[in-house]
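Record DUF6533 domain-containing protein, 317 aa.
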Amino acid sequence: MSTQDETAALVAAYQDYQNEYIVFYASLMPIVYDYLINLDREVGLFWTGKITGASALYFATRYISMLYVIMNTVTSAPNLSLESCNLLVRAGLTTNSLQFLAPAIFAGLRAFVLTKNHVVSLLILILSLAPFVVNMYQYHEDISGIVIPGFGCGQSHSVTLSELLIVTAFSRGGSIIADFLLVVATWRNLKTGVTYGNRASLASIMLWNGSLYFIILFILNTLHLSFTLASILGPQSGTTTAQFTIPLTDVLVCRFLLDLQEASRQDVRFDVDDVQESSFSGSTGVRSVIFARVLGSIGSTIGHSVLVGDAEDEYVY
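=>
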């Protein structure tokens, strides 16, 4: 290869890395933005009162993701030594892996609340932990930090095409199945729990029981798997697109926990018109929201009245 060809290849590689670098940091912005606009809700709902399972999961999801943002900002610092870069890569891998832990536990607990079935709940928990297991497995790989002029610290590790295909399918496949099972469990709970009249809209019912959140997570994980496999077998653009999956997952889980906590604080009840149009199985009145001390607001139901209040405050879902 001539010097001119080598220079062209180097410039192309540098340009690709620059594009990935920009997209990666753009993918972190939803975490920061959501944190800033919901800080007042977080303070009012979680910073006061006793610590419950819901608040612990919320803080873990929110602040592990914020720590991930901070650590990746640090890796962009110029003049990092190779030793510091190696430490940052290891720490970043740990933080990235921990991002999957709290949402997985939340999915398992939410499944138990909806199904009251230990086997189904454990299955959903195990499937949701697949990304965490895969990312922690990378510690056994030969991962090292590399200092890239103009960009800071990056990571390098050797992996075969077949290994990459297997771990991607295992990681995202487990999440996809878990999200699908949660959507089914939510709709079964909705079907047996309430019969609604013509005035109730499909959108409010979906938000009411959280199924919209899990449907979005299901779609995100499906797109992540599709884009990643496409980038492995073809152009690399799918890799950068999949960067948004984890941040958006964290944002959705935090939003869902905020809504559930708000529902538990208000002890959600329908108004008189909603009561006339709704009938609950096994109850002649409106079913009160009762929560276990450990689970906190995880077992709550997002009511129609809460949705109306949220719409006035322009909360984004």
